[in-house]
Design goal:
By secondary structure, the chain is mainly beta. It starts with 6 loop residues before the first strand and ends with a helix. It has 2 helices and 8 strands, in the order ββαββββββα. Helices cover 14% and strands 41% of the residues. A hairpin with a 3-residue loop joins strand 1 and strand 2. The longest helix is centred in the C-terminal third of the chain and has 8 residues.
């Protein structure tokens, strides 16, 4: 994600125990979130994944006309939100600064 100017409609959720989500968008600096997103790296090739991390943050943004979800936890991954909700995801690395920002909230 090289250009933060194209990031729109930021939604930040805190997921508890893999099944309940709390909308914390109003509690975080979404500008800081958008600045840190480009520092995250994704594997070029997708991998098969099923399920949600027990405790994680989910950041959903519109980028380049597509809705992309970043699940930051153990493991961290990203995927495009589509009607079919494909189980193919891109594993992420380099999200430590963003996780530290979200943990402060």
């Amino acid at each position: 994600m090289p250009d933060t100017a194209e990031i729109a409609d930021v939604l930040v959720l805190r997921v508890h125990a893999g099944d309940t989500a709390e909308d914390i968008t109003g509690q975080v600096d979404t500008n800081a979130v958008c600045e840190l997103l480009p520092q995250i790296r994704a594997c070029r090739l997708p991998s098969y994944h099923r399920g949600i991390s027990e405790d994680c943050y989910q950041i959903q943004v519109v980028y380049g006309g597509k809705t992309v979800c970043f699940s930051l936890g153990e493991p961290s991954y990203a995927y495009e939100v589509t009607e079919s909700m494909s189980p193919w995801v891109h594993k992420l690395s380099g999200s430590e600064k963003l996780l530290a920002l979200l943990d402060k909230q």
